[in-house]
Design brief:
Strand order of the largest sheet: 1-2
Number of strands: 2
Strand content: 5-15%
Structural class: mainly alpha
Oligomer: single chain
Largest sheet: 2 strands, antiparallel
Radius of gyration: 15 Å
Distance between the termini: 31 Å
Helix content: 25-40%
Length: 128
């Protein structure tokens, strides 16, 4: 393995699985649980539990569209821990959803995901 390839996690990671799942959904609000699980290296059951946690705390909602879900990250949600007060979830997601090469995703966000970017710090950077 050369230095440019990610190394397997040992012991701890910077992001929680909840943050990873939310970042994948911010990139693609129409993601299937199966695809989210694959991107986050989690089981589908773990992703379903995380989505339920996020919905029960108001960080995520969904609308059924046929046989699929379209997720939305409500505007203005704040980070849970008192030490993290200030930035909003949208502020964090604007960093986590930037592609590796530093550019934003090519496609426009699906309906609903723009609301995550529309409030908070007013920086104008979206959670895409």
């Amino acid at each position: 393995m050369d230095d440019s390839e990610p190394r397997p996690a040992t012991g701890w990671t910077f992001l929680t699985n909840h943050a990873r799942v939310l970042a994948v959904i911010a990139r693609d609000p129409g993601s299937r649980v199966r695809d989210i699980a694959a991107r986050c290296l989690l089981t589908e059951r773990a992703v379903q539990k995380i989505i339920a946690d996020l919905e029960s705390e108001g960080y995520l909602t969904h609308t059924r569209v046929g046989r699929s879900n379209l997720y939305e990250i409500p505007a203005g949600t704040v980070l849970r821990h008192p030490a993290d007060m200030g930035p909003t979830v949208a502020d964090l997601l604007s960093i986590l959803t930037v592609h590796r090469n530093g550019s934003e995703p090519e496609s426009e966000p699906a309906a609903g995901s723009e609301s995550a970017a529309g409030s908070g710090s007013g920086s104008g950077s979206g959670a895409r």
